Amino acid sequence: MKKKTPVLTPFDRYRVPPKQNLFFMPAIWLLCKAITAPSKLRINRVNMKGLKPPFLVLGTHHAFMDFIVSPLAVFPYRANYVSELEGFENYGEWLYRQAGCLGTRKFVNDIALIKNIKKVMERKGILVLYPEARYANVGTSSELPESVGKLAKYLDVPLVTLNMRGNYLQSPIWNLTKRKVVLLDATITQIYTRDELRKASIQEINAKLADFLSYDEYEYQYRNKMSITYEKRAEGIELPLYRCPECGAEFEMHTSGAEISCGKCGAKRIMTEYGRMVRPDGSEDSFSHIPDWYEWERECVKKEIDGGLYGLDMRVKIESLPNAVNFIDLGEGRLIHDMDGFRLIFRDYGDTAERTLSFAPLTMTSIHTEYDYRGKGQCVTLSTLDNTYFIYPLEKGFNATKIQFATEYLYERCKAGLAVSKQ
Question: pTM, whole model, 2 decimals?
Answer without folding.
Answer: 0.95
